[in-house]
Amino acid sequence: VQLQASGGGLVPAGGSLRLSCAVSGSSININNIGWYRQVPGKQRELIASISKGGTTSYADSVKGRFTISRDNAKNTVYLQMNNLKPEDTSIYYCNDLARALVAGASWGQGTQVTVSS
After folding, report:
1. Other C-beta atoms within 10 Å of 96: how many?
2. Which of 10, 33, 66, 115 has a CB 3.0–4.6 Å from the CB of 62, allowing a cystine?
3. Got the DSSP string for 55-97?
4. End-to-end Cα distance, the chain
5. Greatest extent of the chain over all pairs of C-alpha atoms, in Å
6. Mean pLDDT by 10 residues, the chain (117 residues)
7. Rg (CA), the chain
8. How far lies 16's CA from each of 6, 7, 53, 85, 114, in Å?
9. Element housing 99 (H / E)
10. Beta bridge pairs of residue 71
């Protein structure tokens, strides 16, 4: 399974972005997919996930502002980010939840999100 995140950019505080996670090699409706973010020097954190059954979950830091969704036809998972804050500045990654727990797992390049104050 390969996952590629895209859609990042530079936005002002209060702005919005939609990230995309294109999945290949597997169907997203049999995978539990998560969005993660990592600031250099800090641990990568799981901020949103969507199960193969469609159940979503969010970290407290993004709850009410971010929405995870998926398009099975496009085999893509999205992260709609609204009311962005400077502290949301980070590199964003997507991954299969199970694979993410494996030491040395592949993460792809991620996509940079920068929120200016």
Report:
1. 19
2. 66
3. -EEE-TTTTTTEEEEEETTTTEEEEEE-S--GGG-EEEEEEEH
4. 37
5. 39
6. 94 98 84 95 96 95 97 95 98 94 89 97
7. 13
8. 14, 11, 27, 10, 11
9. helix 97-100
10. 76
